C-alpha cells in the first residue's frame, strides 16, 4: 500500500515565538484511518489547517498524492476534503445548492446522481430543499460532511466531527466513514471520544505541545492494552515476598506490605494466576481480597500527555 500523505519535519511558529508544531513527521498510507488524539491546544487543528493550506507552515514539507502543498497547491488541495470543527454555512441557501456549489468550486462537472447518493448516505435527502438556517446543529454538521465529499476527495480530514452531536448522527457518520474506507479514501480524524478511535482507526497518533508522542498500529496498541493487573490484598503485611514467588518480574509488593500486584497478558494461553494462588497459599500468605484492572487507550493517552509535559 502506497503513502498518500507525507509530512516531513513540519513546523509552525507564530509571531511572538509560539511554536504550534515542532517538527511533525508522519506518513499515512492510502485507504487507512488515522485517529489523532490530543488535548485542547495540542496542535491537531494547526496540523490539519497547514496540510489543507489554511495556515502556512514555517518550515518542513507536505506531499498529498505526491503533490507539494505549496508549489502544487491546486493539485494537492483537490485531493483533500475537510470537515472543520466550526459550523460555517450560508444560512439562506438550500442544502442541495450548498453541496453542489462545493463541488463546483473544485472545477468538477455537475453530478446530480453523486450528490443524491451523498445526501442519502448522510440522511439529508429529505432536507435537500431546506435552507441551512432551518437545520439543527447535528444536521448542519452532516451538511459540512456532504460539502467535503462533494468533489470526491481521496484524503478526508474530520476535525472533531462528532463534537456535540447526537448518538444517531455519530452512528451514521461512522457507517459513512466505513464506506469511504472501503472505497479507498484515506481518513484522518481528531476526536475527544477515545472509544471512537478504538472502534474505527487503523492507527492511533497522540499529539501534545505540537509534537507527535506516539503513532502506533491499533492492533499493536490493543496488545499493550491486553496487559492486566491483579491486585491481591493480604490479611497481614509482609516485609518481602518469599523467594518462591519471585520467579518473574511481573510481581511487586506495595510499600505498606499489604498488597501484591501481578501483571499478566490476557491474550496469553495461560495467565499464571492459578499457579500464583497456589504458590502464595504454600508460602503461608493469607488473601483478604482480589481486584483486577486493565489499562484503556485513555490511560495510555493520559500517561503519554503527562510524560510530554514533564
Explain this structure.
- By secondary structure, the chain is an alpha/beta fold.
- It is built from ten helices and 14 strands.
- Strands 6-7-8-3-9-10 form a six-stranded mixed β-sheet, sandwiched between helices. Strands 2-1-4-5 form a four-stranded antiparallel β-sheet. A four-stranded antiparallel β-sheet has the order 12-13-11-14.
- A hairpin with a 2-residue loop joins strand 4 (about 60-65) and strand 5.
- Helix 3 runs parallel beside helix 5.
- It is elongated and about 80 Å long.
SSE blueprint and pairings:
Layout: E1 3-13, E2 19-29, E3 33-37, H1 44-51, E4 59-64, E5 67-68, H2 73-78, E6 80-83, H3 95-105, H4 112-121, H5 137-149, E7 155-159, H6 167-182, E8 186-190, H7 194-200, E9 203-208, E10 211-217, H8 218-225, E11 227-234, E12 251-253, E13 259-265, H9 273-282, E14 287-294, H10 297-309
Parallel strand pairs: 3-8, 3-9, 6-7, 7-8
Antiparallel strand pairs: 1-2, 1-4, 4-5, 9-10, 11-13, 11-14, 12-13
Helix pairs in contact: 3-5
Amino acid at each position: 500500500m502506497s503513502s498518500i500523505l507525507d509530512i516531513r519535519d513540519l513546523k509552525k511558529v507564530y509571531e511572538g515565538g509560539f511554536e504550534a508544531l515542532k517538527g511533525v513527521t508522519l506518513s499515512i498510507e492510502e485507504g487507512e484511518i488515522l485517529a489523532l488524539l490530543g488535548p485542547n491546544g495540542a496542535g491537531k487543528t494547526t496540523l490539519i489547517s497547514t496540510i489543507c493550506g489554511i495556515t502556512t507552515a514555517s518550515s518542513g514539507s507536505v506531499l498529498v498524492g505526491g503533490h507539494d502543498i505549496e508549489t502544487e497547491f491546486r493539485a494537492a488541495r483537490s485531493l483533500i476534503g475537510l470537515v472543520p470543527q466550526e459550523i460555517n454555512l450560508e444560512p439562506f441557501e438550500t442544502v442541495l445548492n450548498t453541496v453542489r456549489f462545493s463541488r463546483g468550486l473544485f472545477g468538477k462537472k455537475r453530478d446530480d446522481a453523486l450528490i443524491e447518493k451523498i445526501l442519502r448516505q448522510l440522511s439529508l435527502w429529505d432536507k435537500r430543499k431546506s435552507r441551512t438556517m432551518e437545520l439543527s446543529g447535528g444536521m448542519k454538521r452532516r451538511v459540512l460532511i456532504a460539502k467535503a465529499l462533494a468533489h470526491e476527495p481521496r484524503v478526508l480530514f474530520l476535525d472533531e466531527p462528532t463534537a456535540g452531536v447526537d448518538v444517531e448522527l455519530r452512528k451514521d457518520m461512522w457507517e459513512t466513514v466505513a464506506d469511504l474506507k472501503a472505497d479507498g479514501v484515506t481518513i484522518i480524524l481528531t476526536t475527544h471520544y477515545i472509544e471512537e478511535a478504538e472502534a474505527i482507526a487503523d492507527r492511533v497518533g497522540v499529539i501534545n505541545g505540537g509534537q507527535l508522542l506516539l503513532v502506533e498500529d491499533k492492533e499493536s496498541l490493543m496488545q499493550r492494552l491486553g496487559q492486566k493487573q491483579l491486585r491481591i490484598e493480604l490479611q497481614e503485611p509482609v516485609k518481602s515476598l518469599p523467594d518462591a514467588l519471585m520467579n518473574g518480574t511481573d510481581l511487586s509488593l506495595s510499600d505498606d506490605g499489604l498488597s501484591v500486584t501481578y501483571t499478566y497478558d490476557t491474550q496469553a494461553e495461560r495467565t499464571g494466576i492459578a499457579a500464583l494462588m497456589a504458590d502464595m497459599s504454600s508460602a503461608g500468605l493469607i488473601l483478604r481480597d482480589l481486584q483486577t484492572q486493565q489499562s484503556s487507550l485513555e490511560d495510555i493517552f493520559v500517561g503519554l500527555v503527562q510524560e510530554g509535559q514533564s
